[in-house]
Fold this protein.
Amino acid sequence: MPRPEVRLSEGRTMARFTRTLLCGVAALTTLACAGATAAEAATYALVTINQQALFFNQINDGAKKAADADGDKLVIFNANNVPSAQNDAIDNYITQKVDGIVLVAIDVNGVKPAVTAAKKAGIPVVSVDAQIPDGDTAAFVGVDNAKAGQEIGSFVADYVKKNMGGKARIGLVGALNSFIQNQRLDGFKKTAAVPGVTFADTVDGQNVQDVALTASENLMTANPSMTAIYATGEPALIGAVSAVDTAGKTGKVKVFGWDLTAQAIKGIDDGWVAGVVQQDPSTEGQKAIESLQTLKKGGKVDPVIHVPVTIVTKANVDKYRAMFK
């Protein structure tokens, strides 16, 4: 009969073998799971307008946050304000077979063929900020620009009545190659055109800060009786604010526009930047990627996902200061 201590030793040996085997199986299972997760990770592309404006960079940040949260990869293409570059980028991403594309369009009509090609290739496109009219996008995420333009127009009309003696001559700084900024311009003029308000020239800032500055300076030189400026985007607003400040007319010209900057906040504090439409670009980028993730998993998304805006004044500017520190 075997001695008990021999049986105990054999039992321990068997137990160690069993534990080793189970650990090996567990390790293989973990590796298999990790491999499956890696295989399921998606690659999304974001085609943007430029990376000069804070607004577009905040869209990028929100999109990257959503991609990282799901273990996905995000690649970003900067079109540098060249519409045709966006078409070429989408064609390249179709060839690379990305899982989805987020598009911040410059020319919403010119980019339509590339969007249609992506759809035919089975690659969904979600447009952000600029809606592709009658296009083949899977969804649109952003602001109702025409409606928000009307909102800031009504705000300005009321401001003129209460704070400017009921009279104002307003110069306009736009980006005439931008469909959405033209929507903001048209919406504004529709509701700001009340008795006592007239419009001076409209100048083209081309969505480029330096160009917008020169255009704003020219606008002020050509219209010395102008008492207000409305700017349709971040580069236009920076240009308008700089032009008014440099000309020493902060006590004579009120500024209204879109998309906060540190310069605009200083103007609000000093009382001559009267109201700025603030969007939520980070949320727009985040919702765009989340929409593509939902589609990849077989779900459905709303065709239009609106993100509300806020008109920032001296009364509510404090909550936005941290963004520019």
Notes: The CA atoms of residues 47 and 77 lie 5 Å apart. The domain at 145-278 is CATH 3.40.50.2300 (Rossmann fold). Residues 4-40 form the longest helix (37 residues). The mean pLDDT is 90.
